[in-house]
What we know:
By secondary structure, the protein is mostly helical. The chain is 65% helix and 0% strand. The chain has a domain at 68-188: Four Helix Bundle (Hemerythrin (Met), subunit A) (Up-down Bundle), CATH 1.20.120.
Amino acid sequence: MPFIWVYWACFISASLIRSIHRRRHFKALPKIDRKELPGMLLSFLGMAIFPLLYTLTDWLVSANYTLHPAMGTLGAIVMFLSVVIIAKAHKDLGSQWTHTPKQVDHPELITRGIYAPIRHPMYTAHFLWGISQSLLLWNWIAGFGFLIGFVVFCPLRLKLEEANLRQTFGQRYDQYAATTPRFVPKLW
């Protein structure tokens, strides 16, 4: 478990970023839609519970695997990048961020900062997180738990979020979507 400390350092950093952001911008968070609970539970299991079990117990030891240490180093770099993207996305969204696809009281379409080259940097960051988690936590359950949950959850949530953005912003969002990739910026 040589790279496990990197995982937990990044987990704590991302949690602090989100917590500070919530306190700064919200008195009360919007209620979670019941349709989203299974996906959020999958994410929580994969990002927190399975890694905790892997770290603190030997319950998952039969699912361990070994990688070359260079892969762990790559995982650390990618995990750090995902935390940077999460921090930048929160900063650029400001009070427009919510943990649900629903809009805030006074919606504004954010197309600046990290939202200029990609429409959904949080999803990009979480996909990178899932990849890096498998390179840092060398266990089939703890390493891939979040990525599997994310791959199941993301398309459903993205559909809700984009429908809400189209309903709220109409043609402005359609123009933004037509010129801005969802997850990966244009490289040239």
